[in-house]
UniProtKB/TrEMBL annotation:
<dbReference type="InterPro" id="IPR050256">
    <property type="entry name" value="Glycosyltransferase_2"/>
</dbReference>
<dbReference type="GO" id="GO:0005886">
    <property type="term" value="C:plasma membrane"/>
</dbReference>
<keyword id="KW-1003">Cell membrane</keyword>
<dbReference type="InterPro" id="IPR001173">
    <property type="entry name" value="Glyco_trans_2-like"/>
</dbReference>
<keyword id="KW-0808">Transferase</keyword>
<keyword id="KW-1133">Transmembrane helix</keyword>
<feature type="domain" description="Glycosyltransferase 2-like">
    <location>
        <begin position="6"/>
        <end position="168"/>
    </location>
</feature>
<keyword id="KW-0472">Membrane</keyword>
<protein>
    <submittedName>
        <fullName>Glycosyltransferase family 2 protein</fullName>
    </submittedName>
</protein>
<comment type="similarity">
    <text>Belongs to the glycosyltransferase 2 family. GtrB subfamily.</text>
</comment>
<keyword id="KW-0812">Transmembrane</keyword>
<dbReference type="Pfam" id="PF00535">
    <property type="entry name" value="Glycos_transf_2"/>
</dbReference>
<dbReference type="GO" id="GO:0016757">
    <property type="term" value="F:glycosyltransferase activity"/>
</dbReference>
<feature type="transmembrane region" description="Helical">
    <location>
        <begin position="264"/>
        <end position="289"/>
    </location>
</feature>
<dbReference type="InterPro" id="IPR029044">
    <property type="entry name" value="Nucleotide-diphossugar_trans"/>
</dbReference>
<feature type="transmembrane region" description="Helical">
    <location>
        <begin position="232"/>
        <end position="252"/>
    </location>
</feature>
<keyword id="KW-0328">Glycosyltransferase</keyword>
Length: 317
C-alpha cells in the first residue's frame, strides 16, 4: 500500500483543529487504498493548538507532529515537515480548511498517472479586501514572471501533492529566506494543474497583513532573481548616456551663439533625480548583501522541541 503524508502547518488554529481532524478522517475513510499520515507542524502557537494535536495523537496513530521551538513562519514550518516525510507522496494543506481535503483524491489520481507535482489553482479568490489585494498580487506575479525564465504558477498556493522525488529535491534547498512557491517552480518535474474554489477560512484569523505581504513580496523577488541588480545597471547606463549627450549639447551650443543661461532649478532637478536613483540602487544592492550576510551565517533553519512519529512505515525507496 502506498503511503501519503498530509503536512499541516499550524499556528494558532485551536478553533479549527477539531473540524480539521473530522474532515481529514472522513477523507481518509473515502480513500481506502492508501495509508495516510497526518504530520502537524506546530509553528510556535501561543494558544492550545499544540495540546489539542498531542491529545488527538494519542487516539489516532496516523498523527505525527513536530513542535517547533518558536514561531518560524509557514515557509520554515513547511521545510521542517518536508525534512521528516517518509512516505511516497506528500500533500501540503492549510489547517484552516481553506483547501478542501476532498480535492486530494483528484490529486492522487493524477499522481497515479505519473505526475510528480499536482498543484491546485484557485478559481476565485475570496479574500476579505479582495479587489486591491488581488490586483496587487496580479501585478506582482507579472513582474516576477518577467524577471525569470522559470514558469511561475499564478493563483496557486502551497496546496499540492508532491511525489517522493520532489520531496527529495526540496530537502536539498537549505536557504533560510525561502520563497517556497518559487522553489516549487524551480524544481520542475512533471506538473499538473487542477482548479478548485478556495473556501473562506473556517474560523480564526488570517496571519497575513499588508506589512507581512510586502516583506514576502520583496523576499520573493530578492531570493529568486537578481533582475533588480541588472535593472539598476541598465538604468544607470541609460541615465549616464543621456547625461553624456546633454553635456556634449551644452558644450557645442555656445559655438552657435546660443548663450547658456542660469539653470538653478534644472540643476536641482537633475541632482535630486540622480540622488534618488543612486539611493535606490544602493538599497537594491543592500538587499542582496543583507541576504548574503544572513545566508553565510548558515544557521539551522528551525529547531525542534519535540518530534512524535505516528506509525507510518518508511517507504521502500
Ligand atoms: N501558518 C504557520 N505559521 C505562521 C503563519 C501561518 O504555520 O507563522 C499556517 C497557518 O496555521 C495555516 C497556514 O499557515 O495553516 C496558512 O495561514 P493563513 O490561513 O493565515 O494564510 P492565508 O490562508 O490567509 O493565506
Ligand atoms: Mg488561510
Amino acid at each position: 500500500m502506498k503511503t501519503i503524508t498530509l503536512l499541516v502547518p499550524v499556528y494558532n488554529e485551536e478553533s479549527v483543529l477539531p473540524q480539521l481532524f473530522k474532515r481529514l478522517d472522513e477523507f481518509t475513510k473515502n480513500t481506502p487504498n492508501y495509508q495516510f499520515e497526518f504530520l502537524f507542524i506546530n509553528d510556535g502557537s501561543t494558544d492550545k493548538s499544540f495540546s489539542i494535536i498531542a491529545e488527538q495523537s494519542k487516539k489516532d496513530s496516523r498523527i505525527s507532529y513536530i513542535n517547533l521551538s518558536r514561531n518560524f513562519g509557514k515557509e520554515i514550518a513547511m521545510i521542517a515537515g518536508i525534512d521528516h516525510v517518509k512516505s511516497d507522496a506528500l500533500v501540503i494543506i492549510d489547517a484552516d480548511l481553506q483547501d478542501p481535503p476532498e480535492l486530494i483524491q483528484e490529486m492522487i489520481s493524477y499522481w497515479e498517472d505519473g505526475y510528480d507535482d499536482v498543484y491546485a489553482r484557485r478559481n476565485n479568490r475570496q479574500r476579505r479586501n479582495l479587489a486591491s489585494k488581488k490586483k496587487t498580487s496580479q501585478w506582482y506575479y507579472r513582474i516576477l514572471q518577467k524577471s525569470t525564465n522559470i514558469p511561475i504558477q499564478v493563483d496557486t498556493g502551497d496546496f499540492r501533492l508532491l511525489d517522493r522525488r520532489c520531496i527529495e529535491a526540496l530537502q536539498k534547498f537549505r536557504e533560510s529566506q525561502r520563497n517556497t512557491k518559487a522553489i516549487f517552480s524551480w524544481i520542475g518535474y512533471k506538473k499538473k494543474e487542477i482548479f478548485y474554489n478556495r473556501d473562506p477560512r473556517l474560523a480564526g484569523q488570517t496571519k497575513w497583513n499588508y506589512r507581512k505581504l510586502l516583506n514576502l513580496a520583496i523576499d520573493g523577488i530578492t531570493s529568486f532573481t537578481t533582475a533588480p541588480l541588472r535593472m539598476a545597471t541598465i538604468f544607470g547606463f541609460i541615465i549616464s548616456f543621456i547625461a553624456f549627450v546633454w553635456i556634449i549639447y551644452l558644450l557645442v551650443r555656445p559655438l552657435f551663439g546660443v548663450s547658456t543661461g542660469a539653470g538653478y532649478s534644472s540643476l536641482m532637478a537633475v541632482i535630486l533625480f540622480l540622488g534618488g536613483v543612486q539611493l535606490l540602487s544602493l538599497g537594491i544592492i543592500g538587499e542582496y548583501v543583507g541576504r548574503i550576510f544572513i545566508e553565510t551565517k548558515n544557521r539551522p533553519l528551525y529547531l525542534i522541541e519535540e518530534y512524535h512519529a505516528g506509525n507510518i512505515k518508511k517507504t521502500r525507496r
